[in-house]
Amino acid sequence: MDVAIVVAYLVAMIAFGFWGKRRARTEADFLVAGRRLGPLLYAGTMSALVLGGASTIGGVGLGYEYGLSGMWLVVAIGAGVLLLSLLFAGRVQRLRVYTVSQMLELRYGPGASVLSGVVMFGYTLMLTVTSTIAYATIFAALLDLPRVPSIVIGGLVVVVYSALGGMWSITLTDFVQFLIQTVGIFLILLPVVLTQAGGFTEVAPEALSLTTIGGETIVTYFVIYTFGLLIGQDIWQRVFTARSPGVARWGGAAAGVYCLLYGVAGALVGMGASVLVPGLAERDDAFTAVVDATMPPVLAGLVLAAALAAVMSTASGALIANATVLGQDILQRLRGRAPAGGEEDHVRGNRLLIIALGAVVIVISCLLQDVVAALTIAYDILVGGLLVPILGGLLWRRATIVGAVAAMAVGTVATLATMAVVGDIYANQPIYVGLGTGLVAFVAGSLASRPTADGVLAEWDRRSSGAPAQEPVA
């Protein structure tokens, strides 16, 4: 029965892809759902996007090992969504661009988008790969499949519905996935596990502490994931789908609060699992182990579908972000012009990019082993190289293209060099060095160069205020 539930879920995802295909008539429809999402759809899809396998399977695993303090990974993600939504999302939504790099070009003028596009492409590619690999855990528990077939099945489903309808398909599937996550985690798994575990009476005292996981680890989560969520293409592209700045601000804030609650719920489930299924060799096995130990078939199918929903929503969001960066920021720049043809041709081109990148992602996912290390490097480069010029451009009017490019180059090189010297990619020093040196280069380069041209700033001000403009930015 639980297998039948998950199979029905996968078939439904593909059906939603065909529904989205009918609505994806223009490039804006395909890439940003026509910029028409209301608060309910927006909040639900933003929540589904940021809460993936690391937040669900990984969050329960952290709760299994560290108790309540295992919540900090997902809490850091929720904090990033809250900060982006309340401080920047309204302004970002008004720009009506497709990518972070286009925002940089709009703010600084020509020359800022190529390097940032390459960095963002690497980040979104690795995010898609790590999300795709997470299918293996779920399908192995459900169907007793080996790693490679599990990755191929899950990856193909995501590629099919993403390529069919673009962001419209992803929006509908993400919202359904959000509902499944909510029911599966909050209404089924959490109460069942806590009840069968006897509440908190059987857990060790340190499991109730908020700092068992360690202060340095908590800081690392906030530095990497909170800052990363402020500037990630996958997150910004979802902001671009909001129909108004108010929807982007308050719908995003609601998603951030949901993420905070989700983090606490995952940690509590992990605590209960430590009582019900003690002695697991790998903490990330806690999710599937506690489901097997506590759930009858129908409920087990719903909860495993919730975990699958979490993984697929992140994978599809990262995949379309990866294709958008490749098409808008890299290939278009290499051609020196926008692709010829009408809207149907643009949609077809984006669809082919998703299919091609999806195939690449599936192959890399089958070959790659240390995915956490790869994702950590990607996040460090993203934050070390792009956080300063992006936030600096939003907050400091004197910032210039010279300062922005200097910050990208210096921050990225300093992050990688420090990582090599320290010899530990999980250490905090590389990201601090990257941010610090990038900030110095940004300020020095901006003050030493001519101010941004008045015409560039005037267009930036006009777009930031929500004045109409041709779409998209080339």
TrEMBL record:
Q: Name the chain's protein.
A: Sodium:solute symporter
Print the keywords alphabetically. Answer: Membrane, Transmembrane, Transmembrane helix, Transport
User: Where does the sequence pass through the membrane?
Assistant: 6-21, 41-64, 70-90, 111-142, 148-168, 175-198, 218-236, 257-278, 298-331, 352-371, 377-396, 401-423, 429-448
**Family, per the entry?**
Belongs to the sodium:solute symporter (SSF) (TC 2.A.21) family.
Q: Which organism is it from?
A: Pseudonocardia zijingensis
Q: What is the membrane topology listed in the Swiss-Prot or TrEMBL record?
A: Multi-pass membrane protein
Among Pfam families, the record links this protein to: SSF
Q: Return the PROSITE patterns for the record.
A: NA_SOLUT_SYMP_3
The organism's place on the tree of life at top rank: Bacteria
Q: Where in the cell is it found?
A: Membrane
